[in-house]
Every structure is written in structure tokens, then in C-alpha cells.
Design goal:
The protein has about 400 residues and is of the alpha+beta class. Helix content is about 50%, strand content about 20%. It folds into four domains: about 60 residues; about 140 residues, Beta Barrel (Elongation Factor Tu (Ef-tu), domain 3); about 55 residues, no CATH class; about 110 residues. The protein is built from nine helices and 14 strands. Strands 1-10-13-12-11-14 form a six-stranded antiparallel beta barrel.
């Protein structure tokens, strides 16, 4: 309507003034309701053409959308394992901080596993004491074996020396018995050495490894026990939390509630613009929004990012080929907007529906040295037309509460 009124002042009004005051046409005489089209045909035609061109220019260079909202991510409250609720620490609508306990599952099985792991560590510690005693005993057996070997070897050397000096004084059988005794003592020394080495390996390697394994088992059992206490991953507000003691929760099918993080939906706004505006929408563009939850307010924004894909084109691989004609909705271009000033979204409820306008700026092209005069004037006119869209947005902000409360029929 504003565009039509503006264009009529440049076309129909001059045409009417020319007909009325230059040609002398009179209203009600030569200019009647039936002769308006014939008399003002050039002005009406020019008005319609100029209005269409003006609307196209405004909406292309200064795009607008009503598909804008403050999306936010909710965090489902889920345990890592199945279990029956044993204790509840909060209630719905409570504010919690990160790491705060929410509820506890029955932990008798996990507590038994922790106690078993502790007993295993105690058992290994006792085995270490026994192994130390075994090492001491093996050292004593080794010394005893070495003493027996030394005694047998001394007797053998004495008998062999006597036999060498005076053959026949010592029976050969005695020398052979002593040799067998020395060999047996040598074997005893080797066995005692091996026993000592085995005891030392058990003390220094085997039992420490078993203790480390038992400690790891205790840590794992403690982790499983800690998992029975479900804690908040982030600070936020708990909603739809209607859990009761005795309920069974499942990480796949039955969450306990929803956690809304602090600051969710208060930092940026997402808007879906038409695909035809993909060449216009660029990061850094100025924008304005008005939201239903904060009526009569225009919030200055800036485009921070433009999604380089359109969601309507995504597909999930399956056994059937994709038919393009099944994609009925063309989809929109996702644009991320952030407040131009700190606290700009204060008072806007996350998830609120909004109307967004974006305004193109050709300042860099206009001030460039290679830009011609005609192009500069045209770009100035295009940027100035953003005022029309800004005025429309403010009219929408004024009408929006009445449209929602009165004209919607609620």
C-alpha cells in the first residue's frame, strides 16, 4: 500500500493535474467514474508498473521474513544405564548448577562390586606380605644349599688330594659318592636360586600387576557406582521432571526430564529467508527484528553467518531413489542474527516468533573509484529504499499486538 501510494504521487497525480488544469478537464463532467481509466490510463499503467518494480527492488535488496525465532537446545536428563529410581534431589522448575545431583538409581549391585574390588586389593596386599616372607625363606634355602655344596666340595677335594698322593688309601667308591653328593648339592643350589628368583619376580612384578589390576577394577566399579547418581551436565532450569521413587528410567526410551541451559536462546536469532535472496544475504548486513514476546520494540541486529546449504535438499540414504518432485517445500536460507548492542535480546522469550528485516548496504561500491555516476545514484536509491521496509516493520510492530489479541479471535 505504501509503495502504491508513493508511486501514484509520481504517476497518477501528475497525470490528473495535467488533465485537470492544463487540458481543462472537469471532475464530474469530462472526468467521471466511467472515464477515469480512459483519462488516466497512462498514469494508472505507469503507477502499476512502477509499484511492481519498486516492490521487487525493495524485497530483493532488503529482504524480510516472518519465519524468525530464537532456537535453543534442550538437554534430556538421561542416565547412562537402566535402573530404578531410589532417591530424588530436585523437583520440576528448579534451577541447578553444573554437576548438581538430580536423582539416584538403586546402587546395591555397584556397591557390591566396589566392595569386592576393595577386598581384592586387601587380598593382594596380604599376598605381598607373604611373598616378602617367601623371598626371605628362599634366601635362607639358597644359603643352606650353598653351604651343603661347599661342604661336599671340600670333602671331595680332600679325598681326591689324598688319593692323588697315596693311591689306594681312599676307596674309589667313596670318591664317587662324594662326587654324586656335590652334584646333588649343585642342583639344590640351582633350585634354591630359581626359587628365590621366582619369589622375587612374584614380589616385584606379578603381585604389583595384580594390585594394579585390582585398583583399576575398583576405579571402574567406583565409576559405575558414581553413574547411579545422575548429575546436571550444564547449569540451567529443569522442566517436565515428574520422576518418582520406584520409576525405571531408560537411556534409550524414557528420559527423566528436560534441562534448559542458562542463556539458551538469548544470544542469537535464526531466520529463514527466501532462496532468491541467497546472493544478497551476506555476513555484516544490518537487520532489525520485532518479536511477539516483546511488542512495540524494534531490536537492531547484524547478520553474523549465512548457512551455505538449504535444509530442504537434505536426504537420508535408503533403498529407494530420491524423486525431486517429492520435495514440495522449496526450503529457506538459514541466516544467523545477533544483537547489535549488548542485551538487545533481553526480554525476548527464547522460542518467540519474530519478524526480521535485513538491509543491504552498497557503501563500499558507491565510494569505489571505478563506480560510475549513474551506478552510484542507482545504488544510493536502492539503499534509500530500505527506509520503506523499515517503516513497514514499525507498522507491523504496532499492529502485531492487536492482530494477535483482537483479530486472531482468541
Amino acid at each position: 500500500m505504501l509503495e502504491l501510494m508513493f508511486c501514484s504521487m509520481l504517476t497518477i497525480l501528475p497525470d490528473f493535474l495535467f488533465r485537470r488544469f492544463v487540458q481543462g478537464r472537469r471532475i464530474g463532467k469530462e472526468i467521471t467514474f466511467y472515464s477515469v481509466w480512459f483519462e488516466l490510463r497512462w498514469g494508472i499503467t505507469g503507477c502499476l508498473i512502477l509499484t511492481i518494480c519498486l516492490i521487487t527492488t525493495i524485497f530483493y535488496n532488503h529482504p524480510s521474513t516472518m519465519a524468525a525465532t530464537l532456537f535453543f537446545r534442550t538437554v534430556p536428563i538421561l542416565p547412562e544405564t537402566n535402573g530404578r529410581v531410589a532417591e530424588i534431589y530436585i523437583k520440576t522448575a528448579d534451577s541447578v548448577s553444573a554437576g548438581a545431583p538430580l536423582f539416584r538409581l538403586d546402587s546395591s549391585k555397584q556397591e557390591a562390586a566396589v566392595e569386592t574390588a576393595r577386598r581384592k586389593i586387601i587380598e593382594v596386599d596380604a599376598a605381598l606380605v607373604v611373598a616378602q616372607a617367601e623371598v626371605t625363606r628362599a634366601e635362607g634355602q639358597l644359603r643352606e644349599a650353598k653351604g651343603s655344596l661347599q661342604q661336599a666340595q671340600d670333602e671331595l677335594d680332600t679325598k681326591q688330594e689324598l688319593h692323588r698322593r697315596n693311591p689306594g688309601i681312599v676307596p674309589t667308591r667313596d670318591i664317587e659318592k662324594l662326587q654324586v653328593r656335590v652334584d646333588a648339592a649343585t642342583g639344590s643350589v640351582a633350585a634354591a636360586t630359581a626359587g628365590k628368583s621366582a619369589a622375587e619376580i612374584k614380589l616385584s612384578t606379578v603381585l604389583p600387576a595384580e594390585k594394579a589390576s585390582a585398583t583399576s577394577a575398583l576405579a571402574q566399579a567406583q565409576v559405575e557406582l558414581d553413574k547411579t547418581v545422575i548429575r546436571a551436565g550444564v547449569s540451567g532450569r529443569v522442566e517436565q521432571f515428574f520422576l518418582r521413587v520406584g520409576d525405571i528410567v531408560n537411556p534409550l526410551m524414557r528420559p527423566a526430564g528436560v534441562l534448559i541451559p542458562e542463556g539458551a536462546g538469548t544470544k542469537s536469532l535464526q531466520a529463514g529467508f527466501g532462496q532468491i535472496e541467497a546472493q544478497i544475504m551476506k555476513p555484516g548486513m544490518a537487520a532489525e527484528v520485532t518479536c511477539v514476546s516483546k511488542p512495540f520494540a524494534i531490536i537492531p541486529m547484524v547478520v553474523t553467518d549465512v548457512q551455505d546449504v538449504i535444509a530442504a535438499g537434505q536426504f537420508r540414504g535408503g533403498e529407494q531413489l530420491i524423486d525431486a518432485q517429492n520435495a514440495v517445500k522449496p526450503g529457506t536460507l538459514m541466516v544467523y542474527l545477533e544483537p547489535l548492542y549488548k542485551g538487545g535480546l533481553d526480554g525476548v522469550t527464547p522460542g518467540s516468533a519474530c519478524i526480521a528485516n535485513a538491509y543491504s548496504s552498497n557503501h563500499d561500491v558507491i565510494v569505489a573509484e571505478g563506480t560510475g555516476t549513474a551506478k552510484r545514484v542507482a545504488l544510493h536509491a536502492v539503499d534509500a529504499l530500505g527506509l520503506v521496509h523499515a517503516l513497514i516493520l514499525r507498522l507491523q510492530a504496532i499492529v502485531l499486538p492487536f492482530k494477535t489479541l483482537v483479530l486472531s479471535g482468541h
